[in-house]
Amino acid sequence: MKSQNRKTVRLIDVAQAAGVSRVAVGQVLNRSGGSNVRVSEETRRRVLDIARKLNYRPNRIAQQLRGGRTKMLGVILDTMHMPVMYNRLSALERAASARGYRLVIGQVHADPAGVGEYLEDFEGRGVDGVICLFDLMRGRDKAVAPLFDGVEHVVFHGRPVYEGASVVRVDTTDAIRQAMAHLFERGRKRPGLVLWNLDDELCDYRRAGFTEGYAAAGVTLDEGMIWEGRHTSQTPSQEVLDDVIDKLIVGKKADAIVAPNDEWAVRLMQKLKSRGFKVPGDVALVGYDNLEIADVIEPGLTTIDQQHDLYAAAALDLLIGGIEEGKKKGESRRVTIKPKLIVRQST
Predict the structure, then answer these.
(1) How far from the centroid of its chain's Cα atoms is residue 193's Cα?
(2) Under 8 Å between Cβ of 152 and 95
(3) What is the pTM of this model?
(4) 261-307 pLDDT tens trace
């Protein structure tokens, strides 16, 4: 609730303090006036400095009523991978704030109706564009695609929901290739792969990277080195962990495991220790996501960093660029982020 003693700072207040016109201030702070308004770099810096000192905040509702941009973006997160999504969201918030935008957040998983409700809410708030960070599961495109019929500016994660949409993706196949090359370079002969949920399309990319990793090393792949599951929980049970160890390490003599994510890798490391296996002596482990726990656990976990800052910059370049350049729906643009292998003691 706004304090009754707090005076609202207006554009005209900033203009008077800066000694420039209200129109010039509007161009600097709200991007109003389009290409018809010219502001020097010195003036722009002076306006921004005074706006900060006066604690100026744009009136989003007034901008919306005037038909202008609200400088707000809607973001829909997937609740399945919350630690990862929160890290990505944090990077987005930092990058958006630096560009003068604010985020409105929604969270869903496998719920087209929920996506539709958030899109309606975003429309009511006058957001300028939408970023969708939910992972698509097989067969759900038909239910989701129609929900975006009236959304002019949207960027999807991974792949487009409909033809012609803009996308930012992390090269998952390359991530697994990097992990495999590292394991073979470290002298591992029989790496194994855990695919925790075959309904997740990312499993296809992980399998491809795993297969290519074996081929690049000149080693024949035994398909039994891939453990497959259909689990809806992000957290593996003790029974599932035992099954992975029994089938890959005991049964197939795997000397390394590429886990689905850092949580799986950490829990697998604990289970291996309880069963008398040494990490990395007997079994090397590679996680995915580079969560904080990967650098805390002993031994430190080798993992994949998804480069959230690069992802956020790319997503905002696509979305805000499309908004400010007036690009129309259907003008597809795609950016692929190269992940980074973080090597620690588990390999």
Answers:
(1) 23
(2) no
(3) 0.80
(4) 999 999 999 999 999 999 999 999 999 999 999 999 999 999 999 99
